Here is the input.
Amino acid sequence: METDENVWSSRAGADFIPDGNLDKQIWTSAQQIRFERDAFQDLACPEIETSVATVWTPRFLYLAYWCKFVNLRTFEGENPAEERWGLWHCDVAEAFVAPSADAASHYFEFEVAPNNQWLDLEIVLNESNLSIKNWNSGFLHATQVDKALRMWTAEMRIPVQIMGVNEIDPGFHWRINFCRCDGPVDQRRFLSWCSLNADHHSFHQPTRFGRLRFADF
Here is the structure.
């Protein structure tokens, strides 16, 4: 069963390089969506409430995350310039993007951790069989951590051509979901903007992705 969730992406006046600072006007004026419920338990987690906003230009999709936290769990002593397989085992903000709304089972996953480690994947899901392709999107990302406010932020710039789109057309909508992993091994929490089938215990449920709509102003 499909979800009725929608998120609007505003058009940015110019392209920009992510720096993790979400006090920029482009983000303070963008629509934010918020979520705090665990995707697989009937449990509210306001202490890790997550907000997301998105803007676009013809060549890029931009995402911003505001992530409340209690304690941070990251892979330490590693080079953040290198792609990190298994990043989802620590704290991470995720986006699942399907540019073809009619073929949501072919989608792209982007992950960024508080220390700016990253992972991107091209995925095809057929009859519950998950196929992950060797793929590098070249997406840019940056993070900042405010320990006093217990908030970490992430900013992503995703090139649309690498996902098979010449440029964003506001006449079409995409499918998308935003997720978050947080907490130690024995107390993991998994937030999702769109409601998921808890029996599957996986973010990989493209039929549950919401709709990403592009505002041409």
Summary: Residues 6-75+104-215 form a domain with the Immunoglobulin-like fold (CATH 2.60.40.1190). The chain has a mean pLDDT of 94. The first strand starts at residue 6 and ends at 11. The longest helix spans residues 25-28.
